[in-house]
Amino acid sequence: MAATRTGRHPDIATLQQGRTLLIRRCIECHTLPPLWHYRIEDWPGIVDSMSHRASLKPAQREAIIAYILAVRSQQ
Amino acid sequence: MIHRRVTHLLSILLLIWPATAPFAGVRHFGYVYEAVTSSPGSLDVENWVTWSHASNPQRVDEVDFRHEFEFGITENFQASLYAADWFYATEAEHSGFIYSDSALELIYNLTNPVVDPVGLSVYEEIRAGDRVFELESKLIAQKDLGPFILAYNLTLEAVWEGTGWQQRQGELQQAFGASYEISQRVSVGVEMLHEFEFPEWRDNERIRNFFIGPNVCLRHKNWFVTLTGLAQATNTPDEADFQLRTIFGIGF
Questions:
Q1: ipTM for the complex?
Q2: Residue A31 forms contact with B (CB below 8 Å)
Q3: Would you call B146 an interface residue with chain A, using a CB distance cutoff of 8 Å?
Q4: Strand pairing partners for B172?
Q5: Residue A1 contacts B, CB cutoff 8 Å
Q6: pLDDT tens for residues B164-195?
Q7: For B147, which residue in chain A has the nearest alpha carbon?
Q8: Does the beta-carbon distance from B144 to A55 stay under 8 Å?
Q9: What is the CA radius of gyration of chain A?
Q10: Which of these, B191, B228, B226, lies nearest to B211 by C-alpha position?
Q11: Is residue B33 within 8 Å of residue A37, measured between CB atoms?
Q12: Are the C-beta atoms of residues B56 and B30 closer than 8 Å to each other?
């Protein structure tokens, strides 16, 4: 499993929260792109840039990034 | 009187709302509602302008304005206040700006348009003015398929109009919209409205209206603009032949 930006491996609850937030908050403004659409190293910056608009607290933002990185690591 | 009360209520809400509330979301359609609700704690202001044009000399052109404040309450629930609906009309006797009504709109989301077979929300709107009172209930369905957003609304309206709200009218409406996301900032699509009007809740006149037209949505950072033009495909003289709606939303 991919590590988060802090170097720790996320637990299942964090990944579930990340998925739930991804499919709820992000679609308020745009459709969801395929996760392979962007490079792994680009995803944290993409999520950071939109986190305020999506009302994401820091832990929620990290959960989304952790979920995306976990999915990408399986592809 | 109603307008003053709504303004007071709105002032209180804006005072207690977080000063740095994030953006509530983008409208991809001008006439069709989407099932997705705003995130908790979010606030945006949406200004609507709708121009209606009719070739019928008995009916005048009209420009309608709406100022909406949209609040995200919980993950599944949002509320909006239409602080003021007003319009500008040109008539033989007089022209000018006229206040129409204010309204409260509530939307509760039931299922998600990405992971569930269809995203569903229920909608209720209560509108009141000096010469109009209206209840509007809506079932909103949405499905996101890759870069496409498909949305369908089934709406039932009950309207009381005129002095003492003595004229009654019902309306059943279905609306469909499809939007394609060209890029992160631009979507284009099509919308259609199909209306069944029932003056005095009777169908003697069999009034049916159908409108169809394109839309475009532009968005960037904390704002968006959606523009929809609809042409009447039926031949109802009392309805606009063409209407153009712009919604400009900005988050704080």
A1: 0.86
A2: yes
A3: yes
A4: B156, B196
A5: no
A6: 888 999 999 999 999 999 998 999 999 999 99
A7: A31
A8: no
A9: 11
A10: B191
A11: no
A12: no
